[in-house]
Amino acid sequence: MAENRNEIVNKYGIANNALLSVTLFEGRDLKPDDFLGKFDPYIMMRVDTEKITSNYKPDTLDPVWNEDYSL
């Protein structure tokens, strides 16, 4: 039985119901954001219209998240 390819994949050949899983591990040696040498890093991920923002890690240039996300 043949399936209608246009109904199951987008224009990039990716299944319309595909799920992207991302594991955010860590950052290293980030540049300080202010004159005190501090930084409150976070990550913002965007795929098409979906947006996810990680937890922020206060006062570090070597953040560790170990967080999993799905888009």
Tell me about this structure:
The chain has 71 residues and is mostly beta strands. It has a single domain (18-70), classed as C2 domain (Immunoglobulin-like, Sandwich). Helix content is 6%, strand content 30%. The chain is built from one helix and four strands. The protein has one helix at 5-8; strands at 21-26, 44-47, 50-53, 64-70. The strands form two sheets. The chain has a two-stranded antiparallel ribbon with strand order 1-4. A two-stranded antiparallel sheet has the order 2-3. A hairpin with a 2-residue loop joins β2 and β3. The protein is elongated and about 55 Å long. The two termini are 31 Å apart.
List the helices and strands and how they pair.
Elements: H1 5-8, E1 21-26, E2 44-47, E3 50-53, E4 64-70
Antiparallel strand pairs: 1-4, 2-3
Feature tags:
single chain, 71 residues, mainly beta, Immunoglobulin-like, two-stranded antiparallel ribbon, 6% helix
List how many beta strands DSSP finds: 4
The top level CATH class name? Mainly Beta
Q: From the 3D structure, determine the CATH topology.
A: Immunoglobulin-like
Low-pLDDT windows of residues: none
Q: What percent of the residues sit in helical stretches (DSSP H or I)?
A: under 10%
Q: Please, what is the average pLDDT?
A: 85
Q: What order do the strands of the largest sheet run in, or round the barrel if closed?
A: 1-4
The tally of structural domains comes to: 1
Class by SSE composition: mainly beta
Quick overview of this protein structure:
The protein has one helix spanning 5-8, and strands at residues 21-26, 44-47, 50-53, 64-70. With 71 residues, it is mostly beta strands.
